[in-house]
């Protein structure tokens, strides 16, 4: 922990430091140690670095230069990971596209990237072609990259010179996150901020050793995978096992098969595992530490005891957040501590805004109370923000405690636990979290309003007992009868699976505020149980059906979407 503290506290954005340099240096020090394992094989650090360099050479030949963007649309694979590393070693930016996106949403994301080249997994070509601008993209498949890399001359295997010149403040990744505009935003991950996570979450929190293997079944476009998991692996010089996707029935078989001693999680994953019948294999592993966020306090101890896990490195963070909390001391039911400057302040529950006192200043909540989390923005702790400068400015609060100070507004409620510790409580605003993904209510509303039978709608997240996050619920004013099969099919075409509302409530009208925003607080508080005489439909594997007793339990048990 002492070795990693300087990297967290005193690392400067202007120094020559990068993700690629960390990986490259490790490959030079331990070329024979296994770096990555998957069903398609395994590579040592030395083998992986050589292949990364060859991929960097292919990208350079395709016109990619320092500062350019390389879009990446792929499921998890060794080659996807290596192309990401090749991109950042060139000093370029890896634009990590969510493979659930389609149509106008994907087109919007492609427009943000303005990529020099889009690297595509062949099986996702049909998804790409649903985007109107697909024909304008310079596309190269992973298969084509492999062939070009294999045919490249020997000098292509050498480390690219750009890697040693890259500075911390330069962009490394664009990671897409839902915002209040109704379309995804691309949060910027600089090398500097990734390296602070590498030192803080990876070094202070997870503390892997060289003989450890971390199992990752989360999508590699997810920040928990590309920053938290990969950072922890590289910090310890450990190995990373990659699964194509999460499978609740095969999870422990994979853990044992890959001989994993660690894994990365989101809260939903843990709940699904706990809901499975007990099997002997779930105790026949060597997992000693896990890292992730969203593990609910009510299942924390049961999960740890049932699966025999020594340490849970729960953390709090977000793709765009300039700080993170990590449970470094193995305490129960906490998101951990953060030594970087932050405040937990009083807020307005109706608007979600931080409250100012009579002097125009913010006030911290007391220990044990819930408040809005703010992270201080300084030269050493910058806010990378988004590709859209207007969206970046919206997340900043100025003159909070004194004139001239600046704070990043996380939009999250946390409980101040004392000694710099917090526990995550809830998410504010027009975004809620479901299935480990952020869902923008306005994006879902836009899809609903395209349906001919919907006149008006409001979308919000509601709690489902036994589930993590909030499930989507829509209150709709109809022009014509609700066609349950048509609505489910149309929404599935326009939205990612996790964004399709689980509940649809038919209402006569929607009350609006003076700024013409739907009053969602009352609707959210009523949820599906407080709908009164209003008809409520629920999403099943067969489409929408009338609400039935036991549906929430089916959702919690993963028997329904």
What does this structure look like?
GO terms for molecular function: ATP binding; long-chain fatty acid transmembrane transporter activity; long-chain fatty acid-CoA ligase activity. Keywords: ATP-binding, Ligase, Nucleotide-binding. The protein has 3 domains: 4-245, ANL, N-terminal domain (Rossmann fold, 3-Layer(aba) Sandwich); 338-427, Roll (Luciferase, domain 3), CATH 2.30.38; 432-557, GMP Synthetase, Chain A, domain 3 (2-Layer Sandwich). The protein contains 18 helices and 26 strands. The strands form 5 sheets. Strands 2-1-10-9-11-12-13-14 form an 8-stranded mixed sheet. The chain has a 6-stranded mixed sheet with strand order 6-5-3-4-7-8, sandwiched between helices. Strands 15, 16, 17, 18 and 19 form a 5-stranded antiparallel sheet that branches.
What is the total number of structural domains? 3
Q: Which CATH class of the largest domain?
A: Alpha Beta
Overall mean pLDDT stands at 90
**What's the total helix number?**
18
Spatial order of strands in the largest sheet: 2-1-10-9-11-12-13-14
Distance between the termini: 42 Å
- Total strands: the figure is 26
Q: Could you state the CATH homologous superfamily of the largest domain?
A: ANL, N-terminal domain
Helicity range of the residues? 25-40%
> Tell me about the biggest sheet?
8 strands, mixed
Strand proportion: 15-25%
Name of the CATH architecture of the largest domain? 3-Layer(aba) Sandwich
Q: What is the fold-level CATH name, i.e. the topology of the largest domain?
A: Rossmann fold
| Morphology call | globular
Radius of gyration: 23 Å
């Amino acid at each position: 922990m002492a070795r990693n503290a300087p990297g967290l506290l005193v690392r400067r954005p202007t120094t020559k430091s990068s993700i690629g340099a960390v990986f490259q240096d490790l490959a030079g020090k331990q070329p024979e140690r296994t770096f990555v394992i998957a069903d398609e094989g395994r590579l040592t650090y030395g083998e992986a670095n050589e292949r990364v360099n060859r991929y960097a050479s292919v990208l350079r030949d395709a016109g990619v230069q320092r500062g350019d963007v390389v879009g990446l649309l792929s499921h998890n694979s060794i080659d996807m990971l290596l192309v990401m590393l090749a991109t950042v070693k060139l000093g370029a930016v890896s634009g990590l596209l969510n493979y659930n996106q389609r149509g106008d949403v994907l087109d919007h994301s492609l427009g943000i990237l303005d990529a020099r080249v889009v690297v595509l997994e062949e099986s996702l070509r049909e998804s790409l072609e649903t985007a109107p601008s697909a024909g304008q993209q310079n596309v190269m498949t992973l298969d084509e990259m492999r062939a070009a890399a294999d045919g490249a001359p020997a000098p292509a295997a050498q480390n690219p010179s750009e890697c040693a010149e890259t500075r911390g403040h330069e962009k490394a990744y664009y990671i897409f996150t839902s915002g209040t505009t109704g379309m995804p935003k691309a949060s910027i991950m600089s090398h500097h901020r990734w390296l602070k996570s590498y030192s803080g979450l990876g070094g202070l929190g997870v503390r892997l050793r060289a003989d450890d293997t971390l199992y990752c079944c989360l999508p590699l476009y997810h920040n928990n995978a590309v920053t938290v998991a990969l950072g922890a692996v590289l910090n310890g010089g450990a190995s990373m096992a990659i699964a194509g996707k999460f499978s609740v029935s095969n999870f422990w078989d994979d853990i044992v098969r890959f001989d994993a001693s660690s894994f990365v999680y989101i809260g939903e994953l843990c709940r699904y595992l706990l809901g499975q019948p007990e099997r002997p294999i779930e105790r026949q592993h060597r997992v000693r530490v896990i890292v992730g966020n969203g593990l609910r306090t009510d299942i924390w101890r049961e999960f740890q005891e049932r699966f025999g896990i020594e340490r849970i490195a729960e953390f709090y963070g977000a793709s765009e957040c300039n700080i993170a909390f990590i449970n470094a001391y193995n305490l129960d039911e906490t998101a951990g501590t953060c030594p970087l400057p932050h405040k937990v302040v009083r807020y307005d529950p109706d608007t979600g805004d931080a409250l100012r006192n009579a002097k125009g200043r913010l006030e911290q909540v007391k220990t044990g109370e819930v408040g809005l989390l703010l992270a201080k923005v300084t030269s050493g702790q910058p806010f990378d923000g988004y590709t859209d400068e207007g969206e970046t400015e919206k997340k900043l609060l100025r003159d909070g405690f004194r004139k001239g100070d600046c704070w990043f507004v996380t939009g999250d409620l946390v409980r101040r636990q004392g000694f710099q510790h917090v526990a995550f409580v809830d998410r504010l605003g027009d975004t809620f979290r479901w299935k480990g993904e952020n869902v923008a209510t306005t994006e879902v509303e836009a899809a609903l309003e395209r349906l001919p039978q919907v006149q008006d709608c409001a979308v919000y997240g509601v709690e489902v007992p036994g589930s993590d996050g909030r499930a989507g619920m829509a209150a709709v004013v109809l022009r014509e009868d609700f066609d349950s099969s048509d609505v489910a099919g149309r929404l599935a075409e326009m939205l990612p699976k996790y964004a399709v509302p689980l509940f649809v409530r038919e209402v006569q009208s929607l009350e609006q505020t003076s700024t013409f925003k739907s009053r969602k607080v009352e609707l959210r508080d009523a949820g599906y149980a407080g709908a009164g005489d209003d008809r409520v439909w629920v999403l099943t594997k067969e489409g929408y059906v009338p609400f039935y007793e036991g549906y929430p339990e089916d959702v919690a048990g993963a028997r329904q979407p």
